[in-house]
Amino acid sequence: MAKPWTTLARVTTSEGTLELRQRGERDFLITLGGLVLMNSLANRSEIVLGQRGCRQLQHRPAARVLVGGLGMGCTLRAVLDSLPADAVVVVAELNPVVVDWCRGPLAGLTGGAVDDPRVRVEIADVADLVGNAAAGEFDAVIFDLYRGPHFHTDPHHDPLYGNEAIAKVRKTLRSAGVFAVWGENHDAGFVQRLRAGGFAVTTERPGRGGLRHVIFLATRSA
User: Long-range CB contacts (< 8 A, 24+ apart) of 150-155?
Assistant: First the structure.
């Protein structure tokens, strides 16, 4: 018989009740309004997202990466494992309690990734950080947000996945920089907007069988 879930923490947000649940040493859920956002035992796509987004930076001196969304820290861990010791990783997270969870109950999942000396956490909307970034500030921008691009995304004005947002990401990337995005499903419209916005694009569905999430890998054209 499966163990029952224990709620470790609960906080009210503008989008509903955010909860951290546990039922085993390494078995955690983060839920929002009762819907599962993250599962510590089903994070293959998040890990591959971090790896693919930074695989070109393993030997890049002073590489700079922007990660949108902390979650359980699995993407961040993969990013750090792909970067040299002098890299800088800026993480944008809307909910400060999520940072506390990653420093507390979830720390063992990632070896305390959020406290790595290369990491700087900003309690902010990643769209705002992108909009305020200097031209060519980052080598990679990685979005690991629970709402990825989808069919109903406003193609022009969506603050994360619309044409205007894509142009801002391109501006903040250095030459051949990578924009890596997690998605629940493939979105042909998003791929088209990325290509029109000056990116070479590939997609990947990590894992085998069953429901597999999508990674969009967009490389900034010269």
Answer: 150/183, 150/184, 150/185, 150/187, 151/187, 151/189, 153/187, 153/189, 153/190, 155/189, 155/193
